[in-house]
Structure formats: structure tokens, C-alpha cells
Amino acid sequence: MTDEELEALPSADRDRYIELIDGDKIGGTPLFFQGDEWPDGGPWRLLLQLDPNWVPFHLNLGSSPRVFAFVAEDGAQGRLLVQDS
After folding, report:
1. Of the candidates 71, 81, 65, 24, which has an alpha carbon nearest to the alpha carbon of residue 47?
2. Three-state SS for 50?
3. Where does 1-85 have alpha helices with state H?
């Protein structure tokens, strides 16, 4: 779902959708908080979404980062993306 589609939803539906895709996870739909920011060279599938400041270990990636790991559909390449507030 694009940012524009998300903003067009009624607030209760938007909140429910965000709750479903938020948090640390393997696979699924990424929850970008700085706009849709897919890596170049896709199409990509989300491998991992991680908020590394809130787990039992710390990755020094910024003040409040979210890490996205992507893998190409054929599994031959990957990309790591960090969004930070």
C-alpha cells in the first residue's frame, strides 16, 4: 500500500493496518516511516524488519532506526535499508 493509499483510509482502518504490519518481523509488508523507500534494482521482497534499539541487542544505526533487509525474488541479491528519525 502506498503512502497516498494509506492516508486515504479512514483513521480506524489506517490504525488497524499499521498495527498489523508494525514491529520486528520476518517477511511480510514493510512499514516505512519516511515514505515508500524501496531499494533500487527491484523487485524486492521483505526479508526482515527490525527496530534494533528495542531488542536484546543494540545496533548503532541512529537515534531511532528501523532496518529493512530485502532479497531479490530469485534470491541472488539482497539490500539493507535503514530509516532513522
Report:
1. 71
2. strand
3. 3-8, 11-21
